[in-house]
Amino acid sequence: MNNDFKIYKLSDQIDKYNAPNNIPEVSNNQYNKNKVRDDFRNMLINNLFISELEATDLEIGIFNCTIDYANTNKIQLSWKCSLFLDTYINISRSIYSNLKSNSYIGNQDLYKRMVDNKEFVPHMLPYMQCHNVFPERWNDIINKNNLRLKEAYEFNIVAMSDMITCMRCKSKKVSYYELQTRSGDEASTLFMECLICGKKWKQ
């Protein structure tokens, strides 16, 4: 029987497996880089005179906000995906327009609040609610909405009678109003509502 054996030199095999891989290392960070990101960061530094550290921090916040939005809405996390790129550009445009004091939005204080007063760190700006970004514009709207909700859900003391008792909860806090629903020669109808349990009835 002819046995063909291949003889290996042990030192060569050790060197072969200890040698560094010739495959170039791929950093995950390289997939995060894009010309749009660099251009926006440079625009913040050159046009708004934000320090490089703050501009980088703000841009990272915008990038992270874009990723969170994309994950929520099942958008592919790739710069080749137009939806992902558009999301990044829209968030960037919104932030830039709010920071620029002479823009059409008219947010005069945001730049000062972020850069001078240090009310918040730049990377939190993309995550802030609109009423926190521009409180001067939203205060009136929020106050009107709160007033409307208060009026809708607040108990109004209306005409009440101690002589009417709710059949469900036996409370005497019953509001009523009288309405002529039939012809003029017939008696009007009383519409009643218990202010405690909400039961409505008429008689």
Question: Can you describe this structure in just a few lines?
Answer:
By secondary structure, the protein is mainly alpha-helical.
State the share of residues found in helices, binned by percent: 40-55%
Biggest β-sheet strands, sense, barrel: 3 strands, antiparallel
How many beta strands in the DSSP annotation?
3
Question: What do the pLDDT scores average to?
Answer: 83
| Gap between N and C termini | 114 Å
Which class of secondary structure composition applies to the elements? mainly alpha
**Apparent shape:** elongated
Radius of gyration from the alpha-carbon trace, in angstroms: 35 Å
Key features of this structure:
mainly alpha; N-terminal domain of TfIIb; 2 domains; zinc; zinc ion binding; zinc-finger; nucleic acid binding; Znf_TFIIS
Sequence-ordered SSE layout with sheet pairings:
Elements lengths: L9 H9 L10 H4 L2 H13 L4 H21 L9 H18 L10 H7 L13 H4 L1 H19 L20 E6 L9 E6 L5 E3 L1
Antiparallel strand pairs: 1-2, 2-3
